[in-house]
Amino acid sequence: MKGSLIFLSLVLGGMGLFCNAYFYGSFGSVNDFSGSYALIGLAFDLAKFALVPVGVYFFARAQILEASLAGGAWLVLTIISLVAAFGFLSLKNSEYEAAALAQSTAFESAKAQVESANAKVEALSKYANSQASDAALQTKAELEAQLNILWSAPAKNSLGHKIGMSVQAKLGNCPGSSWYHKTYCPKITALEQQIAQAQSKVGGYDQYLAALAFRDNALKQLSELNVDSTSSYHPVFENIAVLLGIHPNNAKVAFITTSAFVLELLASLLIFLRSRLSFQNPTGRTFDGEYANGVPHNDAASMPKPATQNNEIHAQGDETHAQGRPRSDAASTPKSAAQGDETYAQGGARNDADSTPKPAQDKGGKEQTLYARLASGVQDTEITNLSFKNIRQFLQVTDNSLIGKLRDQLVFNGLAVYDATRKCIPTKSLNA
Q: What is the rounded CA–CA span in Å between residue 260 and residue 384?
């Protein structure tokens, strides 16, 4: 099971690290800055994972302040990681929606209109000069005035006499075959041609303005296209929306949020469980493989003696009482059964100083002695409340990490159990 927890925590943790690095890297506009931002995201996520076993370590030893600080820092970094995971998933989804939008029929149609409008604007760009258009408009007005004067002028014969009719009344239309047509039509035709040229310049500018307006409208229509108008949501979100009767965008937000929570919190949960299992390792080894005081474990030395051997020790103590020799606490210190029998066989009185273990060369021996004293007190119901405070008073020790280790050994040997709040309770109290 521990192997599975390690594997799953590594997989989910690696995915979380990738999300953080990708999201923070997206803040950089250049490769160098992107790498720097990505390193920040990696550092945040690694610190978050490292704080989980640290918090478990302190909490298991009832160091509430340190555990609270670790938990608070983990919470802040987890919120940052959740935002990063949400941002990563949102970026990836926006890339999908942009690609789906670009392939939609509505987008293709609007894009074609913009391209057509651009082509018209390009073709009419020669009329884009508004000053030339204004000059042509003025010229056209002057030429039209001259033409009107000519048409309304009195017609004259070949002798230069007025015939009592205007040119327009006499000619009607140009061209014609009469002497009057040959005389007046060339002037009229020339003015009309000049007016047409001026009109083309004015009309070209108007067409250019119309082309610009058409292009602006086409661009506006293109810019207003979105995933709602083109139904470019991911099919998963559309199906969830149909199933739950909600908008696809709401389904998208809910899905991305849930995914971010699961990705970030599940990895921390697995690391937490792995740390708890490591702390409760039957060898008494904590998650770092060492005692809280820094002394490496010797599994053979630190392993408490079985309960049957402790009972044997108590039997020896009872025999001592029967022979009239008082049992001291030092006498209850674990010895091998053979040594005890040899002492009594020789008929010698037990000397408490002789039965007291020699000072240990390291703290492992001290812990074994203290454990034997505590185990004896539990079995004889000398101590029924295994809180840190009571054990400190009973053993006259102040090292909380050592007391926590002794409590774990009691639980391992079946002399005590932990309840849901990690309160250590003697098994005799449960059976009473």
A: 47
In-domain check, residue 285? no
* Closest to 135 (Cα-Cα) out of 192, 191, 204, 190: 204
Closest CA to 279 of 399, 369, 364, 401: 401
Q: For the chain, how many structural domains are there in total? A: 3
The answer to whether the CB of 205 falls within 8 A of the CB of 130 is yes
Q: What is the mean pLDDT of each run of 10 residues along the chain (432 residues)?
A: 70 78 72 72 85 86 88 91 87 85 83 87 77 74 84 82 82 82 85 82 76 87 75 83 88 89 83 73 40 39 43 44 42 40 41 43 75 90 88 89 89 84 83 66
With a threshold of 0.85, does the pTM exceed it? no
Residue for token digits 């950089």? 28
- For residues 219 and 326, state if they share a domain: no
Q: Which residues, 6 or more positions from 383, have their beta carbon under 8 angstroms from its beta carbon?
A: 374, 377, 390, 391, 394, 426
Closest CA to 184 of 212, 156, 217: 156
Domain housing 268: 2-104+234-279
